[in-house]
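[Protein data]
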Amino acid sequence: MSAADVGVVIVAAGSSSRMGDGELKQFKWIAGRPMLLHSLQLFQSRADVAMVVCVVPREYAGDPPPWIFQSDSERLLLSVGGRTRAESVRNGIADLPASCAIILVHDAARPLVPMPVVDRVVDAVRAGTSAIAALPVVDTLKEVDGGGRIVRTVPRDGLWRAQTPQGFSRDVLLRAHRAAIDGGYDATDDAALVERIGEPVVVVRGSEHAMKVTEQADFSRAEAIHGLAD
């Protein structure tokens, strides 16, 4: 069995502005549990995970909801969210033990990731390359202008939809974030930062179950797919 050398940063610091009801979506219940708890318990069920850091809004870091302790408290840390997603991730990385040679970054908004997806990401990193869960694009893509008029049809060959978790060696991820700070740039995911420093990143098969819950209607969709065979 592999040593406990994996650290996980779960990004749960968003304001949930698109929910429209003022409640943090990462704390809302879905498929029988709060959204964040799904991910926390998933990663803590792995023997190779040494620590899970949940990055939450500042007001919850010192006073978290009580259900978060329905987990292994010895492998749980809470970190304060930053002004950007990248800053939140960096705050989480800083709290991981030095023994975590592999770091997984996961969005709390993807609560139903199947364990085989995590396995594939970790296996790829252990084999020597950064990796992200992703799915190939199957829809026809259209580029449109500001008025909604179609400019062109975008070829979908070779296009994939990025998901999380995304996995990296600690060294590579730290170098990518240092370069972003030095260069004054940001990205919507960590893979983009790693790509920018010239390190290879591969995709491994993700899952439709790993959908991102962004709007209120997504809760119904997630409930519908929960429990279905992946």
